[in-house]
Amino acid sequence: MNRKPLPRIEVDPRKAKEAVALACRNLESCYPKLDPESYAAFSKTGDRVSYEEPYFQRRNLLLTFAIAQWLQPRGEFLQKVEEGIDLVLAEPSWCLPAHNTYVRDAPVLPFPDPERPVIDLFAAETGATLAIIQSLVSLSGPRWECLEAELEKRIKVPYCSTHFWWMGDGDEPMCNWSPWCTSNVLLVFLLTGGTIDERDLANKAIYTLKCFLKDLGEDGGYPEGVEYWTHATLPLVVSLALLKEMGCEEAKEMETSKKVQALLDFPLSMCAEKSWYLNWGDCSAKARVGDVRITLSGRSFPCEEQLTADGAHDGLIRYLSLGTYQVHGAKVPLPYYHYPSLGLSVWHKDGWDIGVRAGSNGFSHQHNDLGSLTLYRKGKPWLVDIGVETYTGKTFSQERYTIWTMRSPWHNTVNPQEGEQKSEGKARVTRSDGQGFEGIFDGAYPPKWNWRRAFSVGREISVQDTCPLGSVLTLVSQTKPEPEGGVIRYPGLGLIRFQESITVILEELPVTDARLRLAWEGSLWRLLVTGGPFSWVIEPTDGM
Questions:
Q1: How far from 429 is each of 337, 356, 533, CA to CA, in Å?
Q2: Average pLDDT of span 389-417
Q3: Residue 288, C-beta contacts closer than 8 angstroms, at least 6 positions apart
Q4: Average pLDDT of 308-317?
Q5: pLDDT at position 294, please?
Q6: pLDDT at 46 exceeding the cut of 60
Q7: DSSP 112
Q8: Cα 341 from chain centroid?
């Protein structure tokens, strides 16, 4: 197949100036070192940071100089580009230590095998980034040949000759890896050419995308949450665009399908206010979806933010974010959404943004958080979902659900005093409409322990938790609550009023983890309310 050029963009002069200035500020910066010891650290201790941080910094810095060289060719920029490319090409593997395995969910190998490259999320992304840089910057003959050879060895040959789990295999469940890896591999082939027939490449890619889409409902609900939607839907959009460029008719049909179009609108329903989102699982409340990804999807939402060039290590995003895009009238969320495929219900009405999930635990990036009530009042967080700490070896292991942020007592749920939700737990929605919700969560807990949650949505939120006496209701907030008898005050927001006798314990949760600090500052607060059954009303302060 013949190589194709990058899609042309109309460069925004302001963004171009900022990108060149960023490169100038970094001219004295050295590329970080990557060593075998830090690679092996993950298999020994579960530490992901010591290798991943310099790994991504190296690519970020390389892209900074490559973009600047493309915009404003200068000898010092080119020198730094060549230095960075040489370092990346010399890496024994582009696969992250946490992903260095040939079998899904198998224990990772401590060191990579350069003769058997693994294509993971970031090996594929590195390949695409190098192909993009090659399209933007004129490289010397020997370096150009070396880059082409490494792309052949690490991406093209393995993709054609090896079945990686993310490619899909019948009914095996997929996740955002499928479109993410596929889009980057397609970019490598299209930008650099190759011997594979375009029809064979398209068929292989289409199969993977079908395997990914088969796990999603026709309603467009994305099970991994909005944050992971960004790393699934943009790659899906890119993959389909590249396949259409190759004349693939199936890509055109998939792009216009009801499921894909509904998927593109999913973040709109999850918007709380500006950069806040209704979240669950590993998804952050500050999901940052409102960038060029939204623009590429053809959508415009009220929460839209622009992606800055500083800090991104994805070559396609860095390139596309330099363009000028016209944002037309933004869509406004509907008052009520229900996603049967997820058991997810969402309300945007009477000043509230509310979400509750009553489907199943145990999927990719999920927590044991069925029934957890997340709500914002006029764009301000009230009852919140904490999210997930910095990934370690424990995060995606058999010990995952021993991590505190994954467990139901750290969500806005009801639990036994001795017990909590199961990772294989299931729930059932019995009523969901514009006025409220009812769900049964017995299947998420130990046998013979029952919990049903119902609430109505109006100026006030009235909640009824039917559960055994002595149960524990957890309420997590960013605002420090002030308990006083059966009333819990939240300064600046309002109060929660209980109708029965309760006992309350207030715990401070200092936010020290770097990933959590992206959403939360200072401390979060956990309120443990013992009693049950619970009847409680959430009342906003006047003016709120």
A1: 14, 10, 19
A2: 95
A3: 227, 230, 275, 305
A4: 69
A5: 54
A6: yes
A7: -
A8: 19
**Average pLDDT, integer, range 487-514:** 97
Distance (Å) of CA 157 to CA 82, 130, 188, 195, 446: 25, 16, 12, 10, 49
C-alpha 25, offset from chain centre: 30
**Cα–Cα distance, 289 to 334 (Å, whole number):** 19
Mean of per-residue pLDDT scores for the chain: 93
Task: Report the distance separating Cα 401 and Cα 422, nearest Å.
Answer: 9
Show the 3-state SS of 248-293.
Answer: CHHHHHHHCCHHHHHHHHHHHHHEEECCEECCCCCCCCCCCCCCHH
Distance separating alpha carbons of residues 245 and 223, to the nearest angstrom: 29
Helix (H, G, I), strand (E, B) or coil at 387: coil
Alpha helices in 74-197 (DSSP H): 75-90, 121-136, 141-151, 157-161, 177-192
For residues 273 and 381, the answer to whether their CB atoms sit within 8 Å is: no
Query: pLDDT digits over 516-527, tens only?
Result: 999 999 999 999
- The conformational region for residue 432 under phi > 0 = left, psi -120 to 50 = alpha, else beta, is beta
pTM recorded for the entire structure: 0.93
CA distance 461 to 91: 56
Measured CA distances, 328 to 265, 298, 516 (Å): 15, 10, 33
Give the start-end residues of each E strand in 1-89: none
Give mean pLDDT, residues 425-444.
Answer: 97
Helix axes 121-136, 141-151, angle to 10 degrees: 150
Alpha carbon distance 382, 82 (integer Å): 50
H or E stretch covering 535: strand 534-540
pLDDT at residue 287, rounded to an integer: 81
Dihedrals φ, ψ of 484, to 5°? -150, 95
User: Does residue 234 register a pLDDT over 90?
Assistant: no
Distance of alpha carbon 226 from alpha carbon 385, whole angstroms: 13
SS3 content of the chain, % helix, strand, coil (to 5): 35, 20, 45
Model confidence at 332, pLDDT cuts 50, 70, 90, reads confident
